[in-house]
Amino acid sequence: MPPAAQTDTGAESGTESMQDPAWWRQAAVYQIYPRSFADSDGDGIGDLRGVTSRVSYLTALGIDAVWLSPFYPSALADGGYDVDDYRDVDPRLGTLEDFDEMITALHGAGIKCIVDIVPNHTSNRHVWFQEALASPRGSAARDRYIFRDGTGPDGSSPPSDWDSVFGGPAWEQTQDGQWYLHLFAREQPDLNWDTREVRDDFLRTLRFWSDRGVDGFRVDVAHALTKDMAEPLPSKAELAPEGENAEGRHPFWDRDEVHEVFEEWRSVFNEYTPPRTAVAEAWVHADRRARYASPEGLGQAFNFDLLRADWDADQFRDIIAANLKEATGSGASSTWVFSNHDVVRHATRYGLPAMESGAGQDGSAWLISGGTESALDRDLGERRARAATQLMLALPGSAYLYQGEELGLHEVADIPDDARQDPTFFRNAGVDVGRDGCRVPLPWTAAGTSFGFGDGGAHLPQPAWFGEYAVQVQEEDPSSTLSFYRRALELRHQLQGEESLEWVQESSAEILHFSRPGRWRSITNFGRTPVELPEGPVLLSSSPLEDGRLPADTTVWLG
């Protein structure tokens, strides 16, 4: 059983912020991909004790919360998002006792903890799915998932021609001839959320982790839980015209009924003091996002709009304005993110020619073409990434950071095929190289085994250039990206006030200038030439000023 103190979020820390029910509204949240953060036992895989060992690093960075990617028992068919048991820890990553110790250490440092929850699908090793395979057609065990008979005279064709997100068909046939739906990898059978047992079991899971001191949940694929599987199932050609904004009519994306699920979750969250928080990963049209973020639902939803934008002042301005308006309408706060475990790191994206031409914002074209260094301007990418991050940290709302971006890490492109782990690579060879390049274990030291990640190497190969980006190197350099992040987060805490923003008109369309009223101003030069700065003390600049002027690809904060 967890320690009694863990049932009250952060009570032992004694800090006022740990009890603030609105702590999440303008929090700086640091995503940890546990298997690649720090390895305490030398098996090449990061673990929970590794996280605990680095709490002082997280404290010095200045973040408010960590978001922990899946740490549950898993065959790693999809980096841990194929969950065998939602109420346990993968033995390779530790134990429930290790989890409790980690929570205690984080809370003792005044840091909240958000964990990933994966409700759309289980793994194919989950006890429920194994029971379903051993049970007859039409059984209650199979009703927890989405099983269907096949088509054709002998049922040997899948129930529909739908594609999996990871490539290939979305249906897999079982030994008795039936088919089950998997919108992602075949090792990830989709749950049937029309079944009361499924809904009740997840309520138990939410309470299980909340009772252990978890402060919130990041909800994976929140827009896919409920589905309309009424026959005849539409073909994929019939689905295509619906597009992204299907207004609740798509059979498996963004259906209105999903909000009934999240209203029940909100009732559970509100059983705790302060209430547990949640943020939806919902890739839906902006018009549909507000409901996920409503106070009656999850409370917050990711917007990935800046992540997908080009380095362009007009795009940034429009996206920021639209999302702040949306947040005001829903009663939530906005979320801002440039990098995570699913996309090419933004230091790389901003250094690619594609960003200049307005295409390939996610960097995928560069990766597929071989990720050659000749196509990447590292200095430009790092410069723009720092400017973008400083701009983001000035915005009202919560900022989500991904491990390693505070070191200025680039995407690792040259991973041998036989070392890759992401199912998107294996299901789409030659089309999609997968997401392993942003999941390579972090460099803590300039040399040594796995650059200080652990004593037994790293589960994904680290490039030689990692040494110059190591924490050990950057901590001693006041001009490093790590020092920059620490100072920016420190100032953000000192200066942050109400969730409001006022635009300041500039003569050049390439300058993005806004103020946080009564607190500070942020000015970003998206252009190619230096510009004059208005009067005011310079608090922080993402790149050195040039004779007192704001250089290209630079953000400055003025008091």
Textual characterization of the structure:
Helices cover 27% and strands 11% of the residues. It is built from 18 helices and 15 strands. The protein has helices spanning 16-19, 48-53, 55-61, 96-108, 127-133, 140-143, 196-211, 236-239, 258-269, 286-289, 313-330, 346-349, 353-357, 364-368, 378-394, 423-427, 471-474, 481-495, and strands at 28-32, 65-68, 112-117, 147-148, 171-173, 179-181, 216-219, 277-280, 335-337, 398-402, 502-503, 511-516, 520-525, 538-541, 554-558. α4 links the parallel β2 and β3. The model is unreliable at 1-14 and 355-360 (pLDDT under 50).
List keywords for this structure.
five-stranded antiparallel β-sheet, alpha/beta, seven-stranded parallel β-sheet, 18 helices, 559 residues
Q: Total helix count?
A: 18
What ranges have pLDDT less than 50 throughout 5 or more consecutive residues? 1-14, 355-360
The description of the largest β-sheet is: 7 strands, parallel
Calculate the mean pLDDT score and round it.
Answer: 91
Note the beta-strand portion: 5-15%
Oligomer: single chain
Number of DSSP-assigned strands: 15
Q: What is the first-to-last residue Cα distance?
A: 49 Å
Helix content: 25-40%
Strand arrangement across the biggest beta sheet: 8-7-3-2-1-10-9
Structural class: alpha/beta
Gyration radius, rounded: 23 Å
Shape: globular
